[in-house]
């Protein structure tokens, strides 16, 4: 039973790149939060994402977010906890949140589009 609950909770609170891509841009209820360092966001980010670094997230910095939206937080990928940190803070503030499994890394591996200053998004992976 513990293993069932573990996997069920992962699916309840995470979304993979293919699932997210299928929802964008049509789902107006959904919003993307890039929880990485602002410079990484400037170089490359998911289409339509807003920059809200996990380390700078406060009730004031999140105050402009709409309560009725589902927020998908992402970081660089495996080993980066920016998405989880941002998600935890947002949930504590009363927002509905999921994280993007694999973050930017898995999004890029699928060949999905990015926005930003550079064409080579892997260069934007630094925190």
Query: Secondary-structure element order, as H and E?
Result: HEHEHEEHEH
Average pLDDT number: 91
**CATH level-four homologous superfamily name:** Rhodanese-like domain
- List segments where confidence is low: pLDDT < 50 over at least 5 consecutive residues: 121-127
Shape: globular
Q: Strand arrangement, largest sheet?
A: 1-5-4-2-3
For the record, the CATH architecture stands as 3-Layer(aba) Sandwich
Give the biggest sheet. Answer: 5 strands, parallel
Radius of gyration: 14 Å
Structural class by helix and strand composition? alpha/beta
Count of discrete alpha- or pi-helical segments spanning 4 or more residues: 5
As for the CATH topology, it is Oxidized Rhodanese, domain 1
Organism: Chitinimonas viridis
Protein name: Rhodanese-like domain-containing protein
Pfam family, one: Rhodanese
Domain Rhodanese: 26-116
For this entry, give a set of tags.
127 residues; alpha/beta
How would you characterize the overall build of this protein?
The protein is α/β, with parallel strands linked by helices and 127 residues long. It has one domain (2-113): Oxidized Rhodanese, domain 1 (3-Layer(aba) Sandwich). The protein is built from 5 helices and 5 strands; from the N terminus they run αβαβαββαβα. It has a 5-stranded parallel beta sheet. The longest helix has 12 residues, at 2-13. The N and C termini lie far apart (38 Å).
Quick rundown:
It holds the Pfam family Rhodanese. InterPro entries: GlpE_sulfurtransferase, Rhodanese-like_dom, Rhodanese-like_dom_sf, Thiosulphate_STrfase_CS. By secondary structure, this protein is α/β, with parallel strands linked by helices.
């Amino acid at each position: 039973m513990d293993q069932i609950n573990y996997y069920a909770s992962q699916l309840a609170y995470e979304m993979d790149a293919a699932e997210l891509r299928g929802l964008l841009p049509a789902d107006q209820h959904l919003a993307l939060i890039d929880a990485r360092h602002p410079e990484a966001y400037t170089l490359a980010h998911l289409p339509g994402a807003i920059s809200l670094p996990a380390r700078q997230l406060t009730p004031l910095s999140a105050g402009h977010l709409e309560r009725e939206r589902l927020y998908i937080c992402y970081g660089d990928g495996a080993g980066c906890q920016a998405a989880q940190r941002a998600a935890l803070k947002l949930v504590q503030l009363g927002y509905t949140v999921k994280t993007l499994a694999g973050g930017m890394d898995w999004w890029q591996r699928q060949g999905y589009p990015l926005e930003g200053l550079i064409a080579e998004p892997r260069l934007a992976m630094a925190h």
